[in-house]
Automatic annotation (TrEMBL):
This is TAFII55 protein conserved region domain-containing protein. GO terms for cellular component: transcription factor TFIID complex. GO terms for biological process: RNA polymerase II preinitiation complex assembly. Pfam families: TAFII55_N. It is found in: Nucleus. The keyword Nucleus applies. Residues 68-91 are annotated as: Disordered. Keywords: Nucleus, Transcription, Transcription regulation. One of its GO terms (molecular function) is RNA polymerase II general transcription initiation factor activity. It comes from the Eukaryota. SMART domains: TAFII55_N. The keyword Cell cycle does not apply. Belongs to the TAF7 family. It comes from Picea sitchensis.
Amino acid sequence: MEEQFILRVPPSIAERIDQVLSENPTSSDDNSVDLSFSEDGRTGTFLIGNNRFPVSLLDLPCIIESYKSYDDAEMNDEPDRTESDDSDDSM
């Protein structure tokens, strides 16, 4: 089963995520990215490098259609989204 989330983060964190995902994987802890949820399934933690940010799973007011590309040329229709993860950078 595939799960997809919309992760809203500040621009500085978005740039760092893009940088980490664009680089070749290494064993460095500075390049680790993780999203985990607590038992309630609505709150959790987003980890990038050594920085942790609290997240909340929010219900979206409408259905969002998403697309994914494996080769940056062809877009594939993905399941509809009804939830979003909101990261709080104040932690």
